[in-house]
Amino acid sequence: MRVAIIGAGASGLTCIKCCRDEGLEPVCFEQEDTIGGLWYFTEEERHSSVYKSTVINTSKEMMYFSDFPIPKEYPPFMRHDWIMKYLHLYAKSFDMYKSIRFRTKVLDLKKATDFEESGKWEILFQELYSENPEEVKKEVYDAVMLCVGHHSEPSWPSFPGMDEFSGLKMHSHAYKDFKPFENKKILVVGIGNSGGDIAVELSRHTSGPVLLSTRSGAWILSRMGKGGEPFDQHVTRRFMSLLPLPLRNKLFTKVVNQRFDHETFALRPQHPITGQHPMLNDDLPHRIIVGSVVVKPNVTNFTKTGVVFDDGSQVNDLDIVIFCTGYKIGFKFIDQSILPVSDNKVELYKYVFPPNLAKPTLAIFGCIQPLGAIFPISELQARWATQVFCGKASLPSKSIMMADIENEKGGNAKEVLCFKTAYNTG
């Protein structure tokens, strides 16, 4: 049984191994010339990648693949280049490179003519390294594992007067490092992890304070917990899953506010600490308290030289506005009838399987925002998907899958936590 894996990032690599574990034949299509996906840093904007100073938000003990621990000499929280070293070690140890076709671009993924009976897929692709890179080739596969993530297409907001603004407007997708922004006056819009990281980094190199605009505030966590232990190891423990959610929220809030009071820093959001994805940033409170970062409310409108905020305050002579406003979920090479996306959401059973297919031979990875590491979640998803492909596991009826998806929409599963204790026991 041949399985096409699209993307050789962390999810794609674990999919290769899980396919082999189940006796399947994986063929991985990768557009770049190396593995790593998002973690492969390049100065160019040819693909989604981290910025030069990116450090992972989960400790190494919480993020490694189950059968390949991260070496002891690696730092507890790794920069992107350390993560790339780990991924290469992982790929080399399990001889994955021979299953990857580098510089191969997938153009189209569609059902085979006999899909209703066979569940097979046709893949159209170009071999960018070949003598004829424009030639379109076609191959048929028994199943597909889509590992392109959800950080490829930037989501731009719309504010009145944006088109009139004379300064530079850019999305964090294009941000690489601080050098082009030295001695500029900058507004960062959005207070997710990218917004916090970029505002902190630029605040050390700009002529004045970096303005950080937030619509609703955010809970700010630190990598370091009690006694210097990584924070995620301190709070992600088995007993925490047994506590009622209101009590868990209360405990988390107390711990986080002991570091700094979010109300005083104009950052306290209306939602509980587990209601949305928090920001993890060690330096932001310190940059705020020394005036290097100034927190502002949401933008009301743009002017030719600046912006007006919801509280009526106004700033002029802005040089640059950086929008850290997330990404759109989209699959350019798949028809909407196969994988419909609505309101930036895609309906997937247990975040993996489209419920509307006659055969469960398409699995999606990366359309999830966990409070924890993505690597072990991807591995567990890949284990499950490959067992479904080879018949060792089965999916419920479409009505049951849709009911589960609706239940998730209803807010009965607001958290997606990766508990290492459960993960290690399989």
From TrEMBL:
<dbReference type="GO" id="GO:0034899">
    <property type="term" value="F:trimethylamine monooxygenase activity"/>
</dbReference>
<keyword id="KW-0274">FAD</keyword>
<keyword id="KW-0812">Transmembrane</keyword>
<dbReference type="GO" id="GO:0005789">
    <property type="term" value="C:endoplasmic reticulum membrane"/>
</dbReference>
<dbReference type="InterPro" id="IPR020946">
    <property type="entry name" value="Flavin_mOase-like"/>
</dbReference>
<dbReference type="GO" id="GO:0050660">
    <property type="term" value="F:flavin adenine dinucleotide binding"/>
</dbReference>
<dbReference type="Pfam" id="PF00743">
    <property type="entry name" value="FMO-like"/>
</dbReference>
<dbReference type="InterPro" id="IPR036188">
    <property type="entry name" value="FAD/NAD-bd_sf"/>
</dbReference>
<comment type="similarity">
    <text>Belongs to the FMO family.</text>
</comment>
<keyword id="KW-0503">Monooxygenase</keyword>
<keyword id="KW-0472">Membrane</keyword>
<comment type="function">
    <text>Broad spectrum monooxygenase that catalyzes the oxygenation of a wide variety of nitrogen- and sulfur-containing compounds including xenobiotics. Catalyzes the S-oxygenation of hypotaurine to produce taurine, an organic osmolyte involved in cell volume regulation as well as a variety of cytoprotective and developmental processes.</text>
</comment>
<keyword id="KW-0256">Endoplasmic reticulum</keyword>
<keyword id="KW-0285">Flavoprotein</keyword>
<keyword id="KW-1133">Transmembrane helix</keyword>
<dbReference type="InterPro" id="IPR002253">
    <property type="entry name" value="Flavin_mOase_1"/>
</dbReference>
<dbReference type="GO" id="GO:0004499">
    <property type="term" value="F:N,N-dimethylaniline monooxygenase activity"/>
</dbReference>
<keyword id="KW-0560">Oxidoreductase</keyword>
<keyword id="KW-0521">NADP</keyword>
<dbReference type="GO" id="GO:0050661">
    <property type="term" value="F:NADP binding"/>
</dbReference>
<dbReference type="InterPro" id="IPR000960">
    <property type="entry name" value="Flavin_mOase"/>
</dbReference>
<protein>
    <recommendedName>
        <fullName>Flavin-containing monooxygenase</fullName>
        <ecNumber>1.-.-.-</ecNumber>
    </recommendedName>
</protein>
<dbReference type="InterPro" id="IPR050346">
    <property type="entry name" value="FMO-like"/>
</dbReference>
